[in-house]
Amino acid sequence: MESNWANDFYKMQYKFIGNYPEGYHTKAANEILEQAGKPVESMLELGAWDGSLARALSNQVGQITTVELIKEMVEKAKSLNPDNIETVHGSFYDVTIKHKFDVIIYIDGFGVGTDDDQLKLLKNIKHWLKDDGCALIDVYQPEHWKKADGVEMYLNRRDMPHIKRRYSYDFEADIMMDTWWHEKDEKLNSTQYLKCYTPDEIHNLCRRAGLNVTGYFPHGAMDYESMKYHEHASLKECLSYRIKVVK
């Protein structure tokens, strides 16, 4: 169930961002394994981009399967992946995966589409999980993004001095919109749309899918008055939080 914006936006986003700083994915991988709380023999990553995070995990996980929508990213991942990573091209709403996994991860991107789309994805995750497995999913916190409505900034003045973004918020539908463009031509822009959920809302949605939330891990928050990012924030103030779910 592809969104009609996702292919263009994520392809453009990857073109602008390129490679993350050295050590970025290693830190993220260690955090994921700590939150999983057990040895991981098999893992499924949804929305894997070029496979950088999976490769950072591959030394500590026996077998990894990744799912990615953007064809170019899939091709790059396949050219770089070690033997214990299998990359699948397709939408995680519709893709067929026969295996079951100790851990499933969806890092930074949950919320594409409607509540029904998210419910379908969560049901897929339940189906793909082993009985004693867990999933780690990043969810955008609406209270943070309400404050970001109308904020415009450069993405990274040092490394990407010409790329700008604007945040908007749909207060009725609780959708965060993130628009990117090159400053030379704002008309050539692309927008990401992600549904935001409070902890109670995502808990209820998971319950409908047959999953139980056993942990919440808040991420940092942006202070839009000082335009400074703070590494630590409360569950109510954070820009996103990670949930740990089990059957």
UniProtKB/TrEMBL annotation:
GO MF term (any one): methyltransferase activity
GO biological process: methylation
Source organism superkingdom: Bacteria
Keywords from the UniProt entry: Methyltransferase, Transferase
A Pfam family assignment: Methyltransf_23
Name listed for the protein in its UniProt record: SAM-dependent methyltransferase
